[in-house]
Amino acid sequence: MNIRVKAIVLIFSGLCSLGSLNGQIPMGVTHSGQSTSQAPFPLTQYTELKNPAPTDEESWKDLSGTRCAWGDTYTRYKKEVNPHLNQKKIDIKGWKGERVAAQLVVSSAIDLDNVSVEIAPLTHSSGKQSISADRILKGFVRYVMTDELNKNQKGTCGPRPDLSQFDSTLVADPIDHLAAALPIKAKTSQGYWIRVWIPEDAISGNYSSDVLIKNNHEVIGKLKLTIQVQQRTLPQPDQWAFHLDLWQNPFAVARYHQVPLWSEEHFRILKTELQPYADAGGKVITVPIMHHPWGGQTYDPYETMITWVRKIDGSWWFDYTIFDKWVEFMIDMGIKKEIGCYSMIPWKLSFLYFDQATNSMKELKSKPGEQAYHDLWLSMLKDFAAHLKSKGWFDITHIAMDERPMPDMLKALKIIREADPNFKVSLAGSLHKELSDELNDYCIAIAEKFSEEMKTKRKAEGKITTYYTCCAESHPNTYTFSNPAEGAWIAWYAAKENLDGYLRWALNSWTIEPLLDSRFYTWGAGDTYLLYPGGRTCLRFENLVAGIQAYEKIRILKTELQTQNKTATLRKLERVLESFDELQLLKTPANVVVEKANLFINGL
Amino acid sequence: MNIRVKAIVLIFSGLCSLGSLNGQIPMGVTHSGQSTSQAPFPLTQYTELKNPAPTDEESWKDLSGTRCAWGDTYTRYKKEVNPHLNQKKIDIKGWKGERVAAQLVVSSAIDLDNVSVEIAPLTHSSGKQSISADRILKGFVRYVMTDELNKNQKGTCGPRPDLSQFDSTLVADPIDHLAAALPIKAKTSQGYWIRVWIPEDAISGNYSSDVLIKNNHEVIGKLKLTIQVQQRTLPQPDQWAFHLDLWQNPFAVARYHQVPLWSEEHFRILKTELQPYADAGGKVITVPIMHHPWGGQTYDPYETMITWVRKIDGSWWFDYTIFDKWVEFMIDMGIKKEIGCYSMIPWKLSFLYFDQATNSMKELKSKPGEQAYHDLWLSMLKDFAAHLKSKGWFDITHIAMDERPMPDMLKALKIIREADPNFKVSLAGSLHKELSDELNDYCIAIAEKFSEEMKTKRKAEGKITTYYTCCAESHPNTYTFSNPAEGAWIAWYAAKENLDGYLRWALNSWTIEPLLDSRFYTWGAGDTYLLYPGGRTCLRFENLVAGIQAYEKIRILKTELQTQNKTATLRKLERVLESFDELQLLKTPANVVVEKANLFINGL
After folding, report:
1. Cβ of B261 and A358 within 8 Å?
2. Most B CBs within 10 Å, among A259, A312, A352, to test the B interface
3. pTM (2 decimals)?
4. Which residues form the Glycoside hydrolase 123 catalytic domain (chains A, B) (predicted)?
């Protein structure tokens, strides 16, 4: 498909310079003229961008009214296509404490002005127990603008100053639990997501419900949903072993919702926006400890959470007010295993501070190896260590590095050790065997592989070992145009590789209008965020969580099987995991691999 | 004269944008290519700008060698002219503790490569006592570029973006005590200043000395100097009653000498630069309490000495590190009667602060009458009052205003009273009778006159009442093209009007190269400074000090005459003072009026 949405691209590009919190956008209205989630929070209604794809008339010719049927949770049903689904009844298996999901699709040949979905109580076959409504997340699967891989089909790295050079389409991704009802235009399809978080104390067995699809008060579809609750129990997310490190961007939240940074209002909204990360078992608190650790690569750059002040006698003064407030907030959210502090070696070796003498912001430009760099960071890290100890956070804090030239990293490490020999250090970068002992949390790209020996040694020493994907990978990935099952695949792969978890550099570095347009002026669409405003999750994120749940189930099952000496089953499980090979993803799509693997473990 | 120095003007204009301390000027070198006083401090040698005036050949035709003779202290002898002076012996009268001065002029028809001046010990006629060399200030009267009054001859207000539109000439002004010797080119004149600070404990009578003018080792002139020390004693400057308020600009000092603001080096240099102000009995410490109280009107704008930080909870935090250091320094210098704090009502109603949340400088734009303005200043002034009380400075501190619209001033006053009813307030502005009771220090322009009733009431209440001149006045004034005697006239006028003193808005708001070029891109040349770098004083400043000494002498004499009931003499004195009428200055130049008045009081 090669339909280009030039008009939108132009508006988008024209407003890229508005990346500051003081932008000229009128309060509560974004460049598309729609309200943001500012007032009242959250926005419950919004209008998607126009579908650049024409109606697939052929698919609609045999439908005169409306059809409702179950689809699957891996598919982005196209708005302009009738998918010809027929399944009226669905059975889903899950452990106690697990989240299971189903997607239904409404395809209509006629205009429907007010479609809503009702789920009757999910009642146990014995009639003795129901799953309460607050365990159910339901919402329309909305359409957002996406683009595509680079022209050479190799990932999506590099700038995209002219988005019209990329195929732009609407794809189903955000799960909009806030819109109670939506109109559905004639000859369009609309997905609807139902996720059931099985209570840990549920009795096992079948829970059934009728799902009613209505247009105003008229029932236009009725589907049967059965949740088959198994015997085993999945622990709560904060008990999960999977080391999930998705970088949070509170600056995007303040800008999008047009609230003052670090205000009560900001934190109130952050609680909503980051709840899905907590519910996914997020482990790491992202902390920029200096101005713009990654330059201005995101629409909302990361500002320092530690205030740097150069006093008139030339000495430094560091204030931790924001840092403390943010870390305490995140710990209260249940995210408390690690504090990742970026960065001693930022992409641009320039350190912005408030200079008291001149009452202005100044930059200290200095690089590892220089005396000024050494003195600055030694002074900063010593002060920081003392503060962390006073808060009881020293042991969870990691001085975090991105991949930088080896000599620079070694120089930085030396200063860290000089400041406090017990400082923990993390790196998301390339595989350097000689660095492994230094790094308490080490994350490498999927294309590189830790040796089994390294992984064993690191595990024995209590060190965290993970992998990441970014714009370099075509598959697996979590672009808005990716196969959503690749989200699940990512966590399965960690299980296969005996890795502790997964890192992604962007949980919510939103584009200017993330609900409408996931394209950005760098990288493939969706690369910069996995969550949508208003605490909205999406096909990509829900699949990732499903994969993490599988990782936890595998961990529990392995222990169980080992305890019970079920070596044959164990071997079968290993064989299933072997199928998670990223080089095979073009041949066998992720949803096929994931579905097959799920069937296996749900059968144990 | 209408000779224009276009080349210099162009360089000057082109560099006006370099007004920041981070300018691109190479260390220690200014735009003319000359060293600044940076290294080593202070600069002892510099080259004046080229004289745009041609040699006055007519005046030189009867001179073949070199002529040295006494001139007077009111005249700017022209470089290109032979003034035909003849006086070889000079007698100067002065009180014990008084500074008295004489100017000699070397006029040479031939090149002299290394002229210096030696003063033999000033010995009492009894031979019993000498005035030691450290009581003598001597130096060449250097030539600096100046311009002229506005074309309509009415003051010098308004911008001068194209200085070539104004007549530019070299004038004698700075007294360069640092250059031990200078070359004198053929057919030029060179003034030389000798100031003797008579010791308080000197015995009265005549002190004489030979003044030798040498070229290398050759004596080229010999003049006789006699100081006639009278019976009366002038107190030390810190005991003077004259309320001298010349606004200091430490920012210009840091920029010109290229030292970090508020560094030890900066204060070391400030001690030299501000000593003449202390020696003139300066009473007021100038304090900008917010960013740019007068916008960017000076080459080196006034930056706040109080650090304004907006914390993330929206509350304000004020830090007084710079304020304390500056005030303590000035008090140590002996300037401690008043702290003038500018400004609640700055020219641009915008308040710059460091915003901790966004790690950036932000402006709060708010004006009197608005809630935000009220809250900001109430919070600031309460905090400030508490700090001042803790330092013991509350009683000398004045919240200082420039002339602003009356409703704004009344609103500001209300907030000041709300913050602390005992805050002192000062205003340099127009005469508003209804404000007089509110203002502890009230200064109005020379053209306006306080009523005798107001002055009497204010004096009885211990309130300070002064006047000012600025660009509005053609005469009296202290431009580099002004008659230097107008400096003295200014203080005599205060005596005549029974005012407490005089205010001028600029003691040392230097131009880019104050030693070379006193022209600025606004106002008449010299308007922005009365002192030159290196602690150099000048004809204008020395005349001002002479006037202040006369003011003190008149004060002492009046008390003496009243005590002794010498009403006839008192009446004569009043009549002498009556001659200080600014409207007569075009008819009778200041030097004539001042000289006559001096003769009178020195005869008492």
Report:
1. yes
2. A312
3. 0.91
4. 247-557
